[in-house]
Specification:
Length: 196
């Protein structure tokens, strides 16, 4: 991809200050930067921290123009990959580009807030299903998936619901421009299990 040198300098400056920008200001700044250069895909990262030492990292690609929409769905996303972990060890991955015809693929994302919508009944406005439906058991014999519905946020590994991974359904799941790691420690914009 050819990026103008002036846009590269702007992007480097933006990344250096992005750590202290609020999510809404980050999204607005990203949009302004995008208007000054050629059309590109926005690359967003996210990290989910479940219960019992389970976590997930992900990367989402979408056309810059999609950042102007109110709510994005799976139809707006050009690339989406997730990786699941238990205590830092890789459990499995899923790539929307390689999904089978029966794979669950349901996404709702607020680009202004840089937030995946959570807490609602599965397959509603405020839920997620990434290779895992409302029963969190259809991720395939050699698969990995994530679900957020009104019962909880949790994962599926090799066709099995991992109950010990469940956290509160309305726990925020935030996207960031910053890189993420399986321990979810290198960025402030992560979801995390609530402490009682």
């Amino acid at each position: 991809m050819n990026i103008k040198p002036s846009l590269k300098r702007t992007m480097v400056k933006f990344r250096s200050v992005s750590g202290w920008l609020s999510p809404k200001l980050k999204a607005a700044t990203l949009l302004v930067v995008g208007l000054t250069g050629p059309a590109q895909a926005a690359e967003l990262n996210f990290c989910w921290k479940g219960a019992g030492g389970y976590s997930m990292t992900g990367r989402m690609s979408l056309p810059d123009a999609a950042m102007f929409k109110t709510i994005l769905t799976e139809d707006d996303i050009s690339g989406f990959k997730i990786s699941g972990y238990h205590k830092g060890s890789l459990l499995g991955t899923w790539d929307s580009a390689q999904r089978g015809p029966d794979a669950t693929w349901h996404l709702r994302f607020d680009p202004a807030g840089m937030l995946f919508l959570t807490g609602g009944r599965f397959a509603s406005f405020a839920s997620q299903g990434w290779n895992a439906d409302g029963d969190v058991a259809n991720c395939g014999a050699q698969g990995f998936g994530f679900n957020s519905g009104n019962f909880g946020q949790d994962i599926c590994v090799n066709g099995t619901y991992i109950e010990n991974s469940s956290i509160a359904p309305d726990t925020p799941l935030v996207a960031t421009l910053d890189p993420v790691t399986p321990d979810c420690r290198n960025t402030a914009a992560v979801s995390r299990a609530r402490r009682n």
